[in-house]
Amino acid sequence: MKKSSITLIAGFAFLMMSFGLPEGDKTPWEIPDEYKNMENPYKGDKGLDRIGKMLYAKNCKSCHGNKGEADGPRAKQIDVPMFDLSSEDFQAAYNDGEIYYMSIIGRDEMPNFESKIPDDEDRWAVVNYIRSLKK
After folding, report:
1. Residues 104, 70, 77, CA angle at the centre, nearest 5°?
2. Shortest CA distance to 59 belongs to which of 133, 127, 131?
3. 89 within a domain of the structure (yes/no)
4. How far is CA 47 from its chain centroid?
């Protein structure tokens, strides 16, 4: 093989790697049916607003940012793409039970918060706060 052919193939491979590979893990979440069918017992409970905001600030803001736009100071250190929690797409795609699962149970680089947020009412307060981020 000529040197120019090898250079061309190498250049094409580099170009494909630069532009053609997905950024991080875009594997869809596998959410168990029990969470897909879960009803939020605190939906619309304004009494939980302060708790949800406080727990979000403590546990979520460093990655997801102040407004849920995946722009927190730690976001650049995460190897997988994060959802913009405030986007219409995210808000429409997932019900409260699914958001509960993703936020509390987690997977991969999204940590499990069951021990950090042990109270179920507090967990739902976080879900309600995430819903309030909708643009």
Report:
1. 90
2. 127
3. yes
4. 25
Per-residue pLDDT of the chain (135 residues; tens, 9 = 90+): 555 544 444 443 333 333 333 233 468 999 999 999 999 999 999 999 999 999 999 999 999 999 999 999 999 999 888 999 999 999 999 999 999 999 999 999 999 999 999 999 999 999 999 999 998
Instruction: Supply angle C-alpha 73, 30, 33, rounded to 5.
Output: 125
Separation of alpha carbons 40 and 97, rounded Å? 7
> Residue 77 belongs to what domain range?
27-132
Does a structural domain hold residue 127? yes
The domain total for the chain is: 1
Q: Give which of 103, 71, 102, 98 is closest to 84, Cα–Cα.
A: 71
Q: Indicate whether 19 belongs to any domain.
A: no
Kindly report the CATH number assigned to the domain that includes residue 71. 1.10.760.10
Task: Tell me, yes or no, whether 4 lies in a domain.
Answer: no
pTM given for the model: 0.80
